[in-house]
Amino acid sequence: MKFFKSTSNLNFHIFISITWLWGLALFNHQSRDPIMFIFPYLIPVMLIAWGHGSKWGFVLAALATLSAMPDAYVDSHTQTELVYAGIATYAKLTGAAIGISVAKKIHKNINPT
After folding, report:
1. Nearest to 11 by CA among 56, 41, 54
2. What distance in Å separates the CA atoms of residue 91 and residue 64, rounded to the nearest whole number?
3. pTM of full prediction above 0.90
């Protein structure tokens, strides 16, 4: 994970991650079968949380949650169902961001460099 070290350029990493999420959102918008699997949304959240901390992981988790909502889902579900789905997705993504941040701190304590 040398590419995502804390000393690396945050703006570049945010740009790459937002571009990734934008691509997923565009795919979900145009596809009949949107990506419902969490892993493609989780990748940028995990990389940013590892390199720049849980705060940025939370921000990217919010953007990933928005990009995970396909148009067909919005049209066919009630507002309450959308809120619950959004909260559940955000909780999963922020949980991963916290886990990755804690794992980095443990890794840093075990292998001080």
Report:
1. 56
2. 11
3. no
